[in-house]
Description:
This protein has 439 residues and is mostly helical. It has helices spanning 34-59, 63-80, 96-103, 114-138, 141-146, 149-170, 175-194, 203-221, 231-235, 251-257, 260-279, 287-304, 313-322, 328-341, 344-351, 355-379, 387-401, 415-430, 433-437; strands at residues 2-3, 12-13, 19-20, 30-31, 89-91, 309-311, 406-408, 411-413. α7 runs antiparallel to α8 (203-221). Its main location: membrane.
Amino acid sequence: MTTTMGSDEQPQSYFPRWKFKASGVIMPEERLSWGQTVVSGLQHCVAMSGSTIIAPLLMGFDPNVAVLFSGIGTLIFFVIVAGRVPSYLGSSFAFIAVVIAATGYAGQGPNPNLSVALGGIIGAGVLYGVIALIVMWSGVGWVERLMPPAVTGAVVAAIGLNLAPVAVKAVSAGAFDTWIGLATVLIIGVVAVAAPGLWRRLPIILGAIGGYLLYLLFANGLGFGKPIDFAQLAAAPWLGMPSFTTPTFQADAIFLIAPVAVILVAENLGHIKAVGAMTGRSLDAYLGRALFADSLATIVAACGGGTGVTTYAENIGVMAATKVYSTLLFAFAATVSILLGFSPKFGALILSIPGPVIGGLSIVLFGLIAAMAGRIWVENKVDFANPANLITVAVALTAGAGDLTLKFGAFTIGGIGTATFGAIILYQILTSPLARRAE
């Protein structure tokens, strides 16, 4: 089986041959020495670990299972894009608000309605796959017209704002919890701004470690809060089977969660464009495959109890810093993640993270989701003097932040769905020929 990279290149085998290159920019079809490949692959594991672990905790998912399926999903992506698009697939934050809304999750411990959330995530994956197949057949132009930067940014911001009350509640149980949460926020900020080298790209995981140690000192050591219980961690075996969960399908949950597919499309599109710009070659020919791979990985993950997945900006940041784009790094990182998924000891350690520390992480992560909208608007030079852009964004932000809920008989659309579909539909109405004719 062959595939073609571009008009100026010869047909190649399905997978690259990964030629060795010792230094300089390492392209996707090249590789470092095997020792450097291992070290660089582990670096990508660290880069993805913060968000891939925190996202399932915020939804009440098993972090072991989420990490396992992030590895499986990355390998699915690797195979479908023929090993030519460097990317890691980790837990998607776009699902958090709708999963919490669909399951009524209280924010602590396992989610009692996890199976319902999994059915909705599968629904999102199926819709995502349909969109991917259409893109493979017709190209990406219609997606860009349907979801221009003004709309995409509005939806991303609405997700972050919708999640804000969840983050604040997590650090509001008492004064001690609030101060630990704020200290975690401060550690993340200091690492992001002042840490040396690549450590600066790991603020979430280092913030979690710092907050954990602070809580351990003041709660277990000085008695200011509820001590961390290490009994479960001590009892957990080093190796064992993950706790898989099968999905159940409820129409309301599917209808609420499925629209996240729109966000995943926009997110993946942006990441593929970013990697293409960094490598100096267009990856548009693989966009349809990338979308389909992400959708399939999301469906597979949800079939066993994992979160929906998406391509990770954290790993794109590592590539930008190192100039190493070899896709072999991601195959290795995925394999390590799969192995970690079979370690109950690892999962028990993650589950021992105190609630206020998770709350501090949430404040930053949910805020970053909202702030990412600003980056989308600035980079794409969105004109807010244009009333169509301004009104679309204003309505979406208010609907998302206020969790505007619409009911259609037995179906309910929460704030995220209202903001998503509202932004898409309103923008099309305001930019229609009829609207322009009335100017």
